[in-house]
Amino acid sequence: QVQLVESGGDLVKPGGSLRLSCAASGFSFRDYYMTWFRQAPGKGLEWVSYISSSGSATYYGDSVRGRFTISRDNTKNSMYLQMNSLRVDDTAVYFCARGYGSGSRGYFDSWGQGSLVTVSS
Amino acid sequence: SLELTQSPSVSVSPGQTATISCSGDRLGEKYTSWYQQKPGQSPILVLYQTYRRPSGIPERFSGSISGNTATLTISVTQPIDEADYYCQAWGTNAVIFGGGTRVYVL
Tell me: the pLDDT tens digits for B52-75? Predict the structure, then answer.
């Protein structure tokens, strides 16, 4: 079955960096676009970034553009999120999810368990 | 840019119908997905492309659209349906969520 496992979450100081990983199994990873979402404590879901199946196209939410970089390695069935210049308001549980369907038909049918990133001095 | 608006909470008695709405500019021209999230858990897709139910999701979950408002309806609501529900649609190369609706089954 589809499995997504995030790792790399940690406590980091403001201005610091962190790299999250998402390991995928149970499906043909190279055939799907992948996405990062986050959820701050007690708040709703927020889209962070997504990457096309080949990795050639990437998109970012306004709050992270220029600071975060999404990437993937289809040979390792893994996706990554490099987070730089971290701010206190980046504190959240970060989820990776599989995208299904093209364009506006797309939706997210499988989610990982999440990885907690805490930004605090 | 697209914004999706949901009411903060809905209360329903067991066995009754819960209605969760999501409104947004020109939402009627887009596809809406819905996610259920229970405390401490990851979201689960319960509806996609406005009406469609993934395998394993009970038939009591259904979707509709009227004008610029999408609706998730839970018929014969059960205590296990108590959760947060988020609607989602696409903006221009961006994923948009509503703020979420907490469904209380009292």
Answer: 999 999 999 999 999 999 999 999
Size of interface A-B (CB pairs under 8 A): 57
Show the low-confidence residues of chain B (pLDDT under 50).
none
Compute how many other C-beta atoms are within 10 angstroms of the C-beta atom of residue B9. 12
Contact between A47 and B42 using a beta-carbon 8 Å cutoff? no
Ranges assigned E (strand) in A9-104:
11-12, 18-25, 34-39, 45-51, 58-60, 68-73, 78-83, 92-100
Please tell me the distance from the alpha carbon of residue A43 to that of residue A41, in angstroms, as a whole number. Answer: 5
DSSP 8-class letter at A18: E
CB-CB under 8 Å, A101 with B97 = no
Is residue A82 packed enough to be buried (19+ CB in 10 Å), middle (13-18) or exposed (0-12)? middle
Closest Cα of chain B to A108: distance in Å?
7
In this structure, what token pair is assigned to residue B45? 């897709």
Mean pLDDT over all residues of chain A?
Answer: 97
